[in-house]
Design goal:
Blueprint lengths: L46 H24 L2
């Protein structure tokens, strides 16, 4: 199975774009395809993890503002 060159996600043969990061899928020769015994490449930060961190930060700010307002 081929992997995305950007996020290392497994790609289906019919995909034209990686569904995880949006990178355009190029035709990959069979010699470059990764097999199941090869170690998985290091994963990059995905949009979902950035969203989760941003949401967590927003909730932290809201909680801090609530604490300050309740102490006034």
């Amino acid at each position: 199975m081929a992997r995305c060159i950007s996020c290392s996600a497994e790609l289906q043969p019919a995909w034209k774009f990686c569904i995880y990061c949006g990178t355009r899928v190029e035709a990959v020769p069979a010699a470059i395809r990764l097999d199941a015994t090869a170690p998985a490449p290091r994963r990059h930060v995905t949009a979902l993890s950035l969203f989760a961190w941003g949401l967590g930060g927003l909730l932290l700010v809201i909680a801090a503002v609530a604490v300050v307002l309740l102490n006034l």
